[in-house]
From TrEMBL:
Organism: Catenovulum adriaticum
Sequence ranges assigned to domain Nudix hydrolase in this UniProt record: 26-164
Lineage summary: Bacteria, Pseudomonadati, Pseudomonadota, Gammaproteobacteria, Alteromonadales
PANTHER family named in the record: MITOCHONDRIAL COENZYME A DIPHOSPHATASE NUDT8, NUDIX HYDROLASE
Pfam name, any one: NUDIX
Domain of life: Bacteria
InterPro entries: CoAse (IPR045121), NUDIX_hydrolase-like_dom_sf (IPR015797), NUDIX_hydrolase_dom (IPR000086)
Entry protein name: CoA pyrophosphatase
Cofactor(s) required, per the database record: Mn(2+); Mg(2+)
Cited CDD domains: NUDIX_CoAse_Nudt7 (cd03426)
Keywords: Hydrolase, Magnesium, Manganese, Metal-binding
Amino acid sequence: MQLSHLISRLKLQATGLNTPNHDPNLKPAAVLVPIVENQQNILEVWLTQRPDTLRLHPSQISFPGGKLEVADNSLYACATRETYEEIGIKSQVWQAVSQLSKHQTLSGYEITPYVSYARYTADNKNMQLTLNPIEVTEVIKLPLNFLLTQAKLTAQQYQINQQPRLIWHFYYKDKLIWGATAAILAELKQRLI
């Protein structure tokens, strides 16, 4: 898939970048769904692996992002701020494309995902990864083509707190990607195929 096709497919189905409505019983949070065109013109979705020392979601694979802070003027600003804090890529590098559906987590957050893209060049200092070791141990560069053609995304229903919940998951190489991250990727895949 080419970058221009991805942008046109998602923009046609965009829901807006500053949707203020959220469930007041949940804490607002946002993630960036970063799609990067690498030097070989291959589109990659960048994911982060969290350290096993974290209290919440240790070792999980996720998107860069986090909870809304007082200084954030929007959820999108929250997503790009957190991306910079976690992997060192500044907000001005990202070109916003679309907002995906909100996801409620078992830990009490309502996550708003924002798809954004950037073109990677080795000489672009703004695209040099600088991982925050407290929050990220690795950046996983998931080829978008793998997601669209090979990933076996599966949803299983579980009873959690006497409520049925669909939990998505799939493997990329030896990495288990599950939960909200896999659900967001399943929606991205659905919108693109």
